[in-house]
Amino acid sequence: MDSRVWWPFLIIFAMASAGARAQSTDSLVFLSIDCGLEPGSSYVDPLNISYVSDSGFIDTGVNRNISDAYLSDVRSQKLRTLRAFPNGTRNCYTIGSPAVARGSKYLLRAWFFYGNYDGLSSQLQSFELHLGVNYWDRVNVTTAESLYWTETITVATAGYLSVCLVNIGTGTPFISGIDLRQLKDSLYPAANESRSLVLFNRWNLGEEFDYVRYPYDPIDWVWDLWNSSEWNWNDVSTHSTVRNLPQDSFQVPSVVMQTAVTPMNSSSIVLAWDPIPGYANQFFPVLHISEIFDLSGTNQSRQFNIYVNGFQWLGDIMTPSYLYSDSVYSLGPLPSFPTYNISLEALSNSTLPPILNAFELYTTMSNTSVPSDAGDGM
């Protein structure tokens, strides 16, 4: 998996049929699999996330423990064990009913921590990760102590999801953990039965902590911190919790929307990144915006346009509502550019600069081959 981040970031290491457990506030599926955990075992980690063994989802591979030398480097129990696949070109996990229902939308996350489990830390390793038969990502292991993770948002086109590790002749595939989180169908409308989204990165802006995850984010999105010397940090700690828009609106956790950035010495916020060599680079940005200052009864106003490489995006003027979350996204990918920047530019008659709470960026996974459900022929 090539690095998809432009700046360094820190991620804290934080079913069989009976194993699926609904932990989110909306009783959606919330399944966490510890790969390599002894069959029949389960536990609850310090974040109050329940983990089950992967033995109910796959019958190939071997369980391994990371080297004792790296145990002190990890705080998450799921990273201390893994399942390796020394035999076979393609080995797949199958996550089915009741965790997966055809037509439902899911966040699927895979974790990899090598930890020199095989004593071959001097050898670079690389293998592929597929969602069913569709290429998802490449995992490149460069050091024994590095944590790798990748995430996709997908719609189940059958009554199951398959996470497959593919040997490409450059090392033994392995995996440390799998997270499955069911999403409301209204979220991420660009993800559908013919296209899944692959996370480039997800940033919480204006936050003083390194990351946000469950339970502060009830869906368990993992938010990295992005700060800049060109931005002012703002928070809404003296106000009530940010409220959500109606049920059919794009929503993010209120804790993320309670912080935001504004430009320090200009009238614009600029987000820039470069394409990844060798990837399709069809980018799907999502901007989360909320007004965290009460401007009622004042002569202050905040209005701005959003541009992508100088072209106005979606054509709407943004006038954020006080303590209400809103999101800007499109159903199709951005046009192809050699480099990318998104600019939030204040209108000439706006007394305040633009504001931005959070930013997500996805690439596309084309579901070139969609499996048929076993029940279709019956």
Helix-strand string: EEEEEEEEEEEEEEEEEHEEEEEEEE
Say how many strands there are.
25
Strand content: 35-45%
Instruction: Measure the end-to-end span.
Output: 39 Å
* Uncertain stretches: 1-26, 244-250, 372-378
Coarse structural class: mainly beta
User: What level of helicity do the residues show?
Assistant: under 10%
Compute the gyration radius: what is it? 21 Å
Mean of pLDDT:
84
Q: In DSSP terms, counting alpha (H) and pi (I) runs of 4 or more, how many helices? A: 1
Biggest sheet descriptor: 12 strands, mixed
Based on CA inertia axes, which overall geometry fits?
elongated
What does this protein structure show overall?
It is a single chain. The strands form 5 sheets. Strands 1, 2, 3, 7, 10, 13, 14, 15, 16, 20, 23 and 25 form a 12-stranded mixed beta sheet that branches. A 4-stranded antiparallel beta sheet has the order 6-11-8-9, with no helix packed on it. With 378 residues, the chain is mainly beta. It is elongated, with a radius of gyration of 21 Å. It has 1 helix and 25 strands. Strand 2 (42-44) and strand 3 (50-53) form a beta hairpin. 1% of the residues lie in helices and 38% in strands.
Summarize the structure in short.
This protein has 378 residues and is mainly beta.
